Amino acid sequence: MNQPNDLRSTLEPFLAACAAAIGAPHVLTDPHDTAPYLTDWRRRYQGAARAVLCPATTDEVAALVKLAVEHRVAIVPQGGNTGLAGGATPDTGGREAVLSLRRLNRVREIDPHNNTITVEAGVILADVQARAADAGRLFPLSLAAEGSCTIGGNLATNAGGTGVLRYGTTRELCLGVEVVTPQGDVWDGLRGLRKDNTGYDLRDLYIGAEGTLGIITAAVMKLHPQPAARVTALAALGSAHAALDFLSLAQRFAGPLLTGFELMSDFCLQLVGRHFPQLRYPFDGRHAQIVLLELSDSESEEHARALFERLMETALEAGLVADAVVAESLAQSQAFWNLREHIPLAQAQEGLNVKHDIGVPISRIGHFIEETDAAIAAAVPGARMVTFGHLGDGNLHYNVQAPEGGDAKAFLAENESTLNRIVYDSVNRHRGTISAEHGLGQLKIDEAAHYKSAVELQLMRALKQALDPLNLMNPGKVLR
C-alpha cells in the first residue's frame, strides 16, 4: 500500500537506522514486498505499515525495538500470519512497523533426558514436531495451520488444537521463554524447569498476550515420549448430551490414554461430503452428532484396540452410541481426521459465515448448544449451524452459515452483530469465554471489554501500562 510522501519523509531516519541494524535487504518498504504481511489470514483486515522488519536474531529484535522507542514507532509482531482474529495485522494509518519473526528459525537445543526442545519464535510448528520425532519424542501441539504457523504465534495466542485434552494448551507445553521487552531489553527466561518458585511467573504474562507486553523470541517447550500406538475411531450419537456421557465413559476406561475427543454435528459432515465427495461419510444412516476419538498407547496397538473394543461395547450396550467404526490402518485413521479437518474448508466453500471460537464448562455444552441453537433459529430463520470442536476441553467452533440459497453477504451485513450478541450472551450465562483458542486480536477487543468485569479490565490495563507505558507493542489489540 503506497504511503503519502509527507509520511515517507518522516520515516527516513528510522528506516535508515533499521537498515544499519539488520541490513537493508531485511527492511521491506516496497508495496509488492510488504503486501503479504499486511492482510490477515481470513482477509478480514487490510493494514498499512511504515516497513516490514525481518531480524534474524534476538539481539537484532532488541536493537529494532530500541530504535522504535527512540523514534516512537509502534511494533506489530508477526509469525506465520495464520491468526484468525487480526492480531498480527497493522492498522490502516501507515505509522506502524510489522516485525516478522520468520528468520528466527533455529532449533537451539533438544534435551531428550529433560524432555525439552528450545526453539526460536519463527520455527514452523510442523518442523518442531518433526525435530522432536527425529529425537524419538513427541511434541503434541497439533492444529490445522501447523504447516505454516510458528511457535512464536502459537505462544502469543496460547494456541489449543486437538491434543489439549491430554497435553494441555501451548501455555502448558512451555517451560520458559526469551522475551524482548518494550524497552528493548532481553529477558532470558529459557529455563527448562518443572518447578521454580522464585517469584512472579513472568512467563505466563507473555503467553497469550499477543505481543502486547513484549516479543517472545524463543521458548523451551516440553516433549513427551512417542506413543507405541495410536488408534482412532468414529462414534455416532443422538445428541451432544450423549456425547458428554460418552466422554465420561471414555475417560473412565482410557484415562490419560485418551488424547483426542472431537465433536462434529451431522450438518458439518454433510458440508464436507458436498464439497469434498472423496471423503466418504462413514455410517449408513445419519446421526445428530459424530465423535472422533483417539487413544495414544505406550504399550502396544493390541492393548489399545482391546481397550477400544471394551469401551465401544459398553457404550453400545448403554445406548450412548448408535454405531461405531475403528480405523484398521494409518490410512483409515488419517481419513477420519480428514473429515474433521475439512470442516472449515467445506464451510468456506459453502460461503460466508459468522465464526465463533467459544468455550464453556464441559458439563454445559449440551445445554449451550440447545439453548443457543433455538435462540438463533428464532432470530434468523433458516440459519444453518456448523458446530464442531474439541469437546474434551469445552472448546466449540460454533459457526453460523447463511440460509441455503440466500445472499450470504447480505446475511452477514444484516445479522452478524445480532448473532454475535446471541452467542456471546449465551456463553456469558454459561460462565464461558468468547475466545477459547484464537485470541482477541482486533476482532473481539470490544466484545471482551463488554463481558469482562471492570476489575479485570483495570488489572489488564495496569499490566499494560507498567510494562509498555509508551503503548508501542501491538497497540489496538487485546485492549483499547
Number of structurally distinct domains: 4
Basic shape: globular
Oligomer: single chain
- What gyration radius follows from the Cα positions, in whole Å? 23 Å
Work out the strand percent: 15-25%
Main beta sheet strand tally, sense and closure: 8 strands, antiparallel
**What do the pLDDT scores average to?**
94
In total, the number of strands is 19
Keywords: FAD, Flavoprotein
Organism: Paraburkholderia caballeronis
Family: Belongs to the FAD-binding oxidoreductase/transferase type 4 family.
Protein name: FAD/FMN-containing dehydrogenase
In short:
38% of the residues lie in helices and 20% in strands.
Structure in words:
This protein is α+β, with helices and mostly antiparallel strands and 480 residues long. Helix content is 38%, strand content 20%. The chain folds into 4 domains: 5-100, Uridine Diphospho-n-acetylenolpyruvylglucosamine Reductase, domain 2 (2-Layer Sandwich), CATH 3.30.43; 107-225, Uridine Diphospho-n-acetylenolpyruvylglucosamine Reductase, domain 3 (2-Layer Sandwich); 229-344, Alpha-Beta Plaits; 351-429, 2-Layer Sandwich (Alpha-Beta Plaits), CATH 3.30.70. It has 16 helices and 19 strands. The strands form 4 sheets. Strands 12, 13, 14, 15, 16, 17, 18 and 19 form an 8-stranded antiparallel sheet that branches. The chain has a 5-stranded antiparallel sheet with strand order 5-6-10-8-9. It has a 4-stranded mixed sheet with strand order 1-2-4-3. A hairpin with a 5-residue loop joins β8 (174-180) and β9. α9 (266-275) packs across α12 (343-350). The longest helix has 22 residues, at 408-429. The two termini are 25 Å apart. The model has no long low-confidence stretch (mean pLDDT 94).
